[in-house]
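Handout, section B. The chain below has 220 residues.
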Amino acid sequence: MIIGVIGAFDEEVEKFIEMFSLELKEDKIWTIYTGKFQDKKLVVCRSGIGKVNSGAMTQYLISNYHVDLIINSGCAGSLLSKVKIMDVIISSYVTYHDFLPSRIMEYSVPEQGKVQASTKLIHLAEQALDNLEVTNYFVAPIASGDSFVTDSTMRDNIYEATGAYAVDMESASIGHIAKLNSIPFLSLRTISDFSDGEEDFEVIAAYKSSQLVKEIIQLL
């Protein structure tokens, strides 16, 4: 089994390098690390921030490393008061908040713009959280767009438009490309902030996500 793991920035991938003793793969464009864990081959990469970077990275992993599944790991902003910092979001589906008007997204994106994550990976993520005795999590939609969400008005508008519990800049494009290629995917994000431009705990949140992804990989 070949497992692809995508993080947007250094802090979202560096813990994987340490945990799995990964080696840097020389590449002209991307920062990619490879290694083995149990009987699985791991391909961990830093895509860069934003939908184009993460979408292109996803296709590159599929076309050149022939991954069997993709897990997106990292941090995200909360869109709801009940979703607290350090809560975990397992993607039920991913969608865009900046693909407007939404009626265009409905026929231009797989599954009418609500790209469903792998049911098997969702169940494994829940099992991993249970094994680690993590109870503060939600299986819920994640919305993505090419902008930092730093004020409450924008945050609330995104929730009203999408129903998502969390917002980031990569999950939807990763899911979009994975779905076009019939590759199972999951986005697992730990909440780092309230999407209001205030306190941000992205490094701690990213590390928590990486620990959870390791547990999922062990269960595969």
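Note. The radius of gyration is 16 Å. Compare this with the example in section A.
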